[in-house]
Design a protein that fits this description.
The complex is a heterodimer of chains A (about 550) and B (about 260). By secondary structure, chain A is α/β, with parallel strands linked by helices. Chain A folds into 3 domains: about 200 residues, TorD-like (Orthogonal Bundle); about 180 residues, no CATH class; about 130 residues, no CATH class. In chain A, a hairpin with a 3-residue loop joins strand 10 and strand 11. In chain A, helix 1 runs antiparallel to helix 7, helix 3 runs antiparallel to helix 10 and helix 8 packs across helix 10. The radius of gyration of chain A is 27 Å and the shape is globular. With about 260 residues, chain B is α/β, with parallel strands linked by helices. Chain B is about 20% helix and about 35% strand. The longest helix of chain B is centred in the last third of the chain and has 13 residues. The two termini of chain B are about 35 Å apart. The chains are: A alpha/beta (about 550), B alpha/beta (about 260).
Chain lengths: ~550, ~260
């Protein structure tokens, strides 16, 4: 298995963040940055630590910084506490028989730092070299600059040897849940690192390899890929869009130049693996026969981070909500997700707010420009196609700022009746025409209708198709008897907004449904701005207006 | 992997006209179904719709279908002997174990009687399992009355109040089901449950009336009729907030159902 370079960069960043947390008291900027922190959740310590941290941050009052400063002083500096009732974050304290500073462990790490030409930052002479903050910072440095074997031995000899005992003391003496949570995260992360480094050391894991491919060398590679795979990417369909404009949607490509990488596609990538219309089975008056795929080739989908993150949302609906759906599952099994890097944010994008600007779950990542394509290959199966190309050091970068931002309201289940009754939604009654264009453009809208097509009016032979539907369509909730559950465009808008930023997460945990691609905003013929609708609701609930 | 979207053919045994607009289809079926469950029925030339099981017996189940609108029209082209494609049963069921040994009140309106009819027949056939059964069944007018024979039959063992919304007819009360809830002797029951099934507005007002009369919310059970294109948690049509009626319903305790707002 290969690990992407972006994941390696993420590791070093997490070491630096943890180092900062122990180095000195928290300030508001640090607390703010923790709000949007996304952590791996591979073990219980990480999961529970992250949950406890989220809970603390959600309930933190205006005095949080002061409260944490007191906690920091008491636990890590032993201020005002009787001897022993603290967790002094220095390795020597935990590894020397007399539990005192500057013992053997301190001497060892001093030698290690010096060997790399590293010393303490100016003004931090007060920090011992074997202070947790410095040991974490050093390991973060090794991740980017050292060998796997060095990382592994430092982790085992100088961090995991004392961190569990230290964590137990933090758990015992910590006054707020904050440092207990942070320490659990640190412990969980280092455990995760141990597994990763063992895998890297033994060769089971390796770092992804990257290549530069000149555009004129791409054609034969693509030809070879297409023997086994169909390759889909954003592509231009001239004059097929609204009002005669070009339409950019995902389609099968014949050449690198087919890929539209400087613009946002109008439709999302979902149509590649969840077709707009799909035959489920054919029937006669007597029996049904399941439809088999016409093309057995596997699929490479070169998609934006928002679209890759959306795949996980669709997986939740089709594979985990009740029994899995066969048609989706068999398409999904053949799907290879490649990342198409966003070099810039586009109009109406707000992926950063939704945390979906970053996608690491890819098999290869691609950056395209007018001269060449840079490719990071994570799945070994694709290495043979690129091994003859120029090796380079490339990891995809991710947009870190959009021009627009979402303010996601923090809705509690008990507020639903009140939110449902808001006059706020009526503003959409006159404006929305129920065209469902937003649903069509959305990478996470998954609703469908089933439609039977009869081949001849006089026969019973035909096929059942599954066709995209959408909650903004007027008849979406109309029953066979004619009753309509949601009767107005405003009610539909409320349903959609709450699904995207509230109840999907409530049901499936982890993340909101909306990935912040902004395509629904781009698409609306009546210029209804979904993002404004979300932010307006947020302001309304926060009492800022109305 | 099982193909959860693929229906199987079942032979239509008979088609019985209930009213001008409603017909009961009896279909060969060998499996078990629980009271309140439904099937996805394939309507020729249209697609699928969720239809409650309105009756069952040895080797068959029944569906009562309204001949209105474009959606169900196609099914009326079928004859006994033809195949009906269906999948199911889907959904939860009325918690019959909790109803045993207690009084039962059933309030239904129009085709809302279909999903509760097997439940009523269960307690008719096994009176020893329950206590008293009170049934209020409302219909728009005399031409809309469903299951006339069975209502007559129920009179033998249950307290039955059949009622017509705005008109009178021999053997029927007049008025919405809500006006008759006052006749239910809740204060004489030791423990009981109330089942309410019908159009959304009727269910809402009947439940409110019961609560007004002191019925605890936890004793009330309702069943939702929703549009469904899959009935297996995928198509999204039946979703109310985070709840999928097909997976968690269609039967809900009122303490939860009252928060399922559209």
């Amino acid at each position: 298995m290969m690990i992407s370079k972006a994941e390696f960069r993420g590791r070093a960043e997490l070491y630096r963040l943890l180092s900062r947390l122990y180095e000195r008291e928290a300030d508001q900027a640090l607390l703010d940055s923790l709000q949007s922190l996304s952590l791996p959740e591979d073990n219980d310590d990480l999961k529970q630590g992250a949950a406890a941290l989220r809970e603390y941050l959600a309930s933190a009052g205006p005095d949080a910084v002061e409260e944490l400063a007191v906690d920091y002083a008491a636990v890590f500096l032993a201020a005002g506490s009787a001897e022993g009732a603290a967790a002094l974050p220095c390795e020597s304290v935990y590894t020397s028989p007399r539990r005192i500073f500057m013992q053997e462990a301190w001497e060892q790490v001093c030698r290690l730092y010096a060997g790399k030409g590293l010393g303490k930052a100016e003004g931090r002479a007060d920090l011992m070299e074997d202070h947790l903050a410095l040991e974490l910072a050093f390991l973060g440095w090794l991740v980017e600059n050292g060998a796997v074997s060095e990382q592994k031995s430092f982790l085992e000899d100088h961090l995991l040897n004392w961190l569990p005992a230290f964590a137990a003391d933090v758990e015992k003496y910590g006054r707020t849940p904050f440092y207990k949570a942070v320490t659990r995260i640190a412990l969980g992360f280092l455990e995760l690192e141990r597994g990763l480094l063992e895998g890297l050391d033994s060769g089971e894991l390796s770092m992804a390899r990257s290549f530069s491919v000149r555009n004129d060398r791409f054609a034969p590679i693509l030809a070879r890929l297409r023997e086994k795979y169909r390759v889909f990417a954003p592509k231009r369909f001239p004059k097929r869009g609204l009002k005669g404009a070009d339409l950019i949607r995902y389609g099968e490509i014949d050449a690198l130049t087919d890929i539209v990488y400087k613009e946002k596609s109008h439709l999302s990538a979902k149509e590649v693996f969840y077709p707009v219309s799909q035959t489920l089975f054919r029937f006669t008056g007597e029996e049904c026969t399941q439809e088999e795929p016409a093309d057995e080739r596997e699929i490479i989908l070169l998609a934006r981070p928002c679209d890759l993150n959306a795949v996980r949302r669709l997986d939740a609906i089709f594979l985990r909500n009740g029994q899995p759906d066969l048609y989706y599952a068999r398409m999904r099994e053949r799907l290879h997700l490649f990342l198409l890097e966003c070099r810039e944010t586009f109009d109406n994008c707000f992926c950063v707010s939704m945390g979906s600007n970053i996608a690491l779950d890819y098999e290869a990542a691609v950056r395209i420009d007018d001269i060449c394509a840079l490719i990071e290959v994570k799945n070994e199966a694709f290495l043979p196609y690129f091994e003859d190309e120029v090796p380079i050091d490339f990891a995809p970068e991710f947009v870190s700022e959009n021009r627009r931002a979402a303010r996601i309201p923090d809705i509690r289940r008990e507020q639903l009746a009140e939110i449902t009754a808001l006059d706020y939604w009526k503003q959409f009654d006159d404006r929305c025409i129920g065209c469902g264009g937003c649903n069509t453009a959305c990478p996470t809208c998954s609703c469908f209708d089933t439609v039977d097509v009869i081949y001849h009016e006089t026969s019973r032979d035909g096929e059942r198709r599954r066709v995209w539907s959408g909650c903004m369509l007027e008849d979406f909730t109309r029953t066979a008897g004619g009753a309509l559950a949601r009767k107005t465009p405003g009610a539909n808008m409320r349903f959609k907004v709450l699904h995207k930023i509230f109840d999907f997460k409530l049901r499936f945990g982890e993340e909101h449904m909306c990935v912040g691609c902004g395509r629904c905003v781009d698409r609306c013929p009546k210029e209804i701005d979904y993002l404004d609708a979300v932010n307006g609701l947020s302001d309304l609930l926060a009492g800022k207006e109305g | 992997m099982e193909n959860i979207m693929l229906p199987s053919p079942h032979k239509i045994l008979s088609i019985v006209k209930e009213t001008r607009a409603e017909y009961t289809f009896r279909v060969a079926y060998e499996g078990e179904t629980k009271h309140g469950q439904f099937f996805q029925l394939s309507i020729p030339k249209v697609g699928e719709a969720p239809i409650s099981v309105s009756g069952k017996g040895e080797g068959y189940i029944e569906f009562t279908i309204r001949k209105i609108g474009r959606l169900t029209q196609g099914i009326f082209g079928l004859q006994p002997g033809d195949m009906l494609f269906m999948r199911g049963p889907y959904g939860n069921a009325f918690p019959i174990e909790r109803f045993k040994g207690k009084d039962l009140v059933v309030i239904c309106g129009g085709t809302g009687m279909a999903p509760v009819k097997t439940l009523l027949n269960h307690f008719y056939d096994h009176p020893e399992e329950g206590r008293s059964v009170h049934l209020i069944c409302g219909f728009k007018d005399i031409d809309c009355v469903l299951f006339t024979e069975e209502i007559e039959k129920f009179r033998g063992k249950f307290h039955v109040i059949p009622t017509l919304d705005n008109s009178s007819a021999p053997g029927f009360e007049t008025g919405m089901v809500t006006v008759h809830i006052g006749n239910i002797p809740f204060d004489q029951f030791e423990d009981y449950n109330v089942v309410i099934v019908g159009p959304p507005v009727m269910m809402r007002f009947a439940a409110l009336e019961c609560v007004k009369r002191g019925v605890p919310e936890e004793k009330i059970w309702v069943s939702f009729e929703r549009r469904m294109s899959c009935a297996v948690g995928k198509c999204g049509h039946c979703k109310i907030n985070e709840t999928y009626v097909c997976l968690e319903g269609p039967v809900f305790n009122y303490s939860r159902a009252k928060d399922l707002l559209d």
